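Narrative progress, year one. The postdoctoral researcher (J.K.) led the effort to move from monomer predictions toward full complexes, under supervision of the PI. The following entry was the first complex the group processed end to end, covering 475 residues in total.
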Amino acid sequence: ACTAARPRVLLLCSPCMGHLIPFAELARRLVADHGLAATLLFASATSAPSEQYLAVAAAVPDAIDLVALPAPPPVAVLPPSAPTRERVELAVVSNVPRIREIARELGAAAPLVALVVDMVGVVARDVAAELGVPLYMFFTSPWMTLSLLLHLPEMDATRAGEHRDATEPIRLPGCVPIHAHDLPTSMLADRSSNTYAGFLSMAKDAARVDGILVNTFDELEPAVGEGLDGLQLQLPVHTVGPLVWTRPAGVDMDHRCMSWLDQQPRGSVVYVSFGSGGTLTWQQTAELALGLELSQCRFIWVVKRPHQSSTIGAFFGTQKGDEHIPLDFLPEGFMERTRGMGIVTQSWAPQTAILGHPSIGCFVTHCGWNSVLESVMNGVPMVAWPLYAEQNMNAAMMEVQVGVAVRAKVGADRFIRKEEVANGIRRAMVGEEAERLRKRSSELRGQSAHALSKDGCSTRVLAQIANTWKCASRK
Ligand code: UDP
């Protein structure tokens, strides 16, 4: 009851697990440390949200008022073949009237001070204008991606030909050069396609906000904010990260992985996971299994049912019961041969607890930004195996610029052979290169903890923003 009159922030998160997790952490900090109340609206793309989604939502701290928005009405629903970004955007757009209603009700009880949206949610910007509050974007990918988005409208106007055919890399101030093959998936699409048009429109929207919070920190990306003058943008960009959950998201801590990890030697276990949505083909899944075997390292592998035509085959989650499907896609005899050496789990894993365990030696990751941040916060070197969205850029940044990852070598056919899986793991686990990675990772772990400490830069920035919001609402 004592928080009833606290100024309130309204946060709007599109149906992406990788956004919900950092949004909940941002909201938690605003409430716990900065004297605000927070309502977190989270959209749903399907009428039956996945089990993981519900579990993560249920684990959002009580101090945050979480409101689940309904899925788009059946008449509006896009076919499953529609691009993921379109389906995600529709889930937000179809809810704008409801968001308006909720905002009015909340505003009657306590002053609303800001609307915070993700990169998809900027389409709801009229709501902020009607309420007379500032619109902030919480960008849940790195600054490098944001910089690319902010530069895209200009590049689109001045470059000829398809972005994927460019022979010169894109050079953004302070960032590793971006080679054509590392561009975000939507930029590789034909420039005449809807996919590209949607991405470009999102890029233009990114500059139409009052401020941007980026889930990164200064030592990880020292160039944050550089190059905006050249674009004639007066856009305040603040680093508030790394904001991810330190306790596992929506899963029991007594997961069998944890007791098994307790029995393994320090730094000996490879953790393999491709995030909430990433999937491999049948052939690639089997090859990864053989690669793990070949590496002779202990492992925990969060395996997903293979998908032949999509690298985000599980983006909208798996339904209850999916974790009991047979593991018949693994090579014959794999489970027997690796018994005692590794754990294969199909359920949602307690990732942050696993990464924080001293037995973990490296993380084979798709480089989703939350996974990267969680690895960095725990000082765990990475073997980068990017799949979609901006993950190739994240991998390049972590390998070349930050120096905490090796990249699994991809063949001309986009296939990663078992020898290369094993080679990537060995490079990250043993020898001089591994030693260098560990040293740099541990340095970065200290810096990330400091950014979030009581007088760390991310905490101070968030305090300033919260103050600006509170003061503006009192006028
Ligand atoms: N995650 C988890 N258990 C799993 C898989 C994923 O807790 O079995 C969490 C992970 O810790 C991270 C998020 O889900 O916080 C995935 O976000 P990321 O940006 O890495 O990838 P995305 O799922 O968005 O591709």
